[in-house]
Amino acid sequence: LPQLHAYVHARLSSDVRAFPLADLLQLVHAAGKSGFLLFQFGGDEKAVYLSRGEVVFAESNLEADRLGLCLLRAGKITREDLASAESRFHPMTRLGKILVELGCLTPRDLWDGVKTQVEDIVRSLFAYTAGWIHFWEGEIEPDNTVRLSLPTHRLIEEGLAHRDALLRFLAQLEDPRTRIRVQGPPRRAGSENERAMLAALAGDSGFGALCHKSGLDPRTAARTLQFLELTRQVAIEQVESA
Questions:
Q1: Contact present, 144 and 47 (Cβ < 8 Å)
Q2: Which end of the chain is more exposed for a tag (fewer CB within 10 A), N or C?
């Protein structure tokens, strides 16, 4: 959470079930407000910075939202590139700078990658059906030199489409013919949800059993499996009915 100075107005707080995130962002955008929006659900935290109603930056504490994996999803780098950069990473450096130094990205590719990362974080917010949103009005600068200007209206539309895609994926997972299994070498799980899901997997498993074993609700389990499938830690397949 950034330092909130005296000129920042008192926050608005609401349960997303009572005041959907899309409604809040549409209001902020229409009114041309500047401020800082914080979303919290369990251990998940995502923040969006706005200036005059437009998104200028976003950040998240989830591994799935980190720059390296966003670049991998976008096809900008390979798994080998990411592994090489991660092996050279330490807290005093930035992963993006290492990727440029290794020749995996151009400076322009890195800028585009950060833009994609911010857009992905904002779009991902709309898949949550529970959690809290907090909004502080005022000029709040992110602790990052990157400052974008992204059309909030477009991100809302894309976020709602992202939510609908998750619902389709959830329907696929709930099909009795769908089986989920661990594949490939083990990779360090970056979140409590990922650890719970991987611990619940024993051989081929159905989605309902995984939700029960992991203690995750269906949408959270679906989001977790999307990431685990993307990073090739699980395989999701359909089997023929007996």
A1: no
A2: C
